[in-house]
Sequence to fold (263 residues):
Amino acid sequence: MTMSVTIAISNHKGGVGKTTTVVNLAAGLAKLGRKVLAVDLDPQANLTFSFGVSKVEESIYDALKGKIETLPVLNIQENLYLVPSSLDLAGAEMELNAEAGREYILKEILDPIKDSYDYVLIDCPPSLGLLTINAFTAADEVIIPIQSHFLAIKGLTKILEVINKVRRRLNPNVQITGVIITLYDRRKILHRDIEDTIKTYFQDKVYHTKIRENISLAEAPAKGADIFSYSSGSKGAKDYYNLTLEFLARHEKDIEFDFEHND
Fold:
């Protein structure tokens, strides 16, 4: 890898495994020797809490508001860094609305530091407001986690519409490069049907690796740990390890990924 890649992980529907994916993909990449910056752009600060950070003196809110000159970066573990969020971010959309070039604020503060990392992963809020548009404007790619439920695919048209508008008006380079099926259970006919629908629509953008329903993935954030630290032998750890390898195979030419079915 010669240059940094910035990826927004986004779905405006909550509960689809978005933050879980950012936490564990970031941790997986770090364990495989890539330097990763995870950016918590969600006012709920779930990514921050999931990494075991409960109190922060400075957050991404302070940088977006111009209270500090550079993004605050915390070292979570070897190769893994976090820009934390805080509940203050909840008011940011309204507060930044009058700012000139408000869609570019995140890009402006991320650009000076992003090349220090191999990958920058942005955890977007479950909405399509100004914060998410900032993420799409700053990103090279968008990855969409989709839960294996009918309602989860129903709202996809809206996110595609917003990404297309951002591409036309703000960031011509951003594109959807991946779709990850989460909370999957192959025994359920509905899940298999949803998988077929998603593959028909997104084709080769859909990751082979599906993230199965797994209690360890739900428990790990309460311990402030990624799935590899919390339960390395779990299905969740296996799935996210496979996802990390597949991600690297898509982004780095010298990496090959031999898909193993995880049904």
